[in-house]
């Protein structure tokens, strides 16, 4: 069973006869303790605070039966690890996205609003645990005020919190036409005219950060923590 925030992606799954539904990672409408295994791939790094990132791990753990396992992948700050470049850096495509900054709003709903109705045991995201997650594990510069840097695609990261340009391929094509083909080289004038650019928020994780968040929860045990092609990965078990 799959779930995603995007209705369009869920509709594609339905067309292929896969079981999927729309939901939020902070509140998954599945009974507690009913899953043998869960995976969360490239999701948690889109949440903008340590509290919300921890809450998504709490929610993932809630779904698991005792002895059940979960696999989590998040984007790594370290795109060069042990003298090896990640696949992301190796696929440099010549795009010349310029560094810029974008103003964003700082107001957010309190975590307590997101967590209402969940069990105290499975959602044990206390202030003590959250204080342990303060980012002291790498040398990335903190984000100042309300301005986030815009990342240059296929380059190393210079901040943990940033916006990554996402180019909508074939933006002007008719609905019935395929949008999977790149019409022009990325960064070209024609590409910019045809492909709208969206800026997606990311918090890229430093080494040990994801593992520390998982270890802060009493209801799970970290089985394995490793680096894989520019991602930090954790396998955890529900106690």
From TrEMBL:
Residues 1-72 form the Methyltransferase type domain. GO terms for molecular function: S-adenosylmethionine-dependent methyltransferase activity; tRNA (5-carboxymethyluridine(34)-5-O)-methyltransferase activity; tRNA binding. Keywords: Methyltransferase, Transferase. Transmembrane segments: none annotated. Pfam families: Methyltransf_11 (PF08241). The keyword Transferase applies. One of its GO terms (cellular component) is nucleus. GO terms for biological process: tRNA methylation; tRNA wobble uridine modification. The keyword Transferase applies. This is ALKB8 protein. It comes from Oceanites oceanicus. The lineage of its organism: Eukaryota, Metazoa, Chordata, Craniata, Vertebrata. The gene is Alkbh8.
